[in-house]
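Pilot study result, target chain (417 residues):
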Amino acid sequence: MNEMERGGPSRRALIGWGGAGLALGAAAAGGGVALSDDGPSPAKAGSGGAVEFHGAHQAGIATPVQDRLHFAAFDVKTEDRAEFVQLLKDWTAAARLMTAGKPVGEGAYGGLAEAPPDDTGEALGLSPSRLTLTVGFGPSLFDRFGLADRRPAALADLPKFPGDNLDRSRTGGDLCVQACADDPQVAVHAIRNLARVGFGKVAVRWSQLGFGKTSSTTPDAQTPRNLMGFKDGTRNIAGTETARLDRHVWVSASDGDAKSAWMTGGSYLVARRIRMNIETWDRASLQEQEDVFGRDKGEGAPAGKAKEHDAPFLKAMKPDAHVRLAHPDSNGGITILRRGYSFTDGTDGLGRLDAGLFFLAYQRDVREGFIPLQRRLAAHDALNEYIQHVGSAVFAVPPGVRDSHDWWGRTLFSKEA
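Predicted structure:
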């Protein structure tokens, strides 16, 4: 007889984060959430609203980009497949609650005084702030739990690119959680509580805070600027561009073979921590800065054009200009969806800012998206004088949680799926 059959979950089950404790809260939270065939819809209540959790695709990909990020990569510590599956179910239940602006489990207070609260409490009284939580599985996860024959070919290991100086402590991970919100405390609270739920089963390998979104997925929104002062992502895929999303972002049932069928409706994420040599850049002339990017700094217009959204004439830019090299017309049509963030993590001890871009890009196939594009940029981009890639990871982001009975990773771990 389980805890629910005896009339409700015991405090032991809640403390241990067994499925019964969180499933109870998940049912309460999930009952009023409608299922979207296409995935979570944009928030309709402004910056404080809730983004729909359920859908064919995970929220946090085509969703309008929020202002803040807390990204965490985890190492799996358990060798028990059933225990890991239960963790994914518990995480899903907690995510349902947090994205709706509710505390995890029984909350941060009111329970047994002798036991730790179910929720850490720092988001009490705060709005949902458009929180989205997006889960991905790294290549190393497929070395566990008998998953070797389920690893999609599109989840390719990234090669070492020219100029890479990767820090192992900021690279890789068995799985990841991307928390985006308009309030940084809401995003941090989400990662903190998922880490707490997973204690003993997973451990944070590395994490990154981000601010000042550097790309937009919202049509007609003002294009954000990166820490170099230039507009970034002028022609990024918008969340309303269904045809472009289907072509470049979402995995199709026709992709790959039986090994990747579980990824239908998902996407592949590349995360790169890119350190900017801010002090060197700040001493470069305006003309050099504009030549490096291939855009003017004020309007953001392509070289030789008047307005930001004017069609670029690539030959008007220098051969090593960033925009010219990265443009789809220079790369056989390669297009990725970017939703990166700026970061500033203090100084490096030598009086220089540890700052730059935390690059996040979603695509249908890493082999046909980021890898060939980065090979071209790493070899020829004038911007390389001012940046260095110091962290890296790639993840398979499974399809969305369809309803209140579904859970992250079901299509991978459930034989019935």
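One observation from the pilot: The radius of gyration is 22 Å. A full batch analysis is planned for the follow-on phase.
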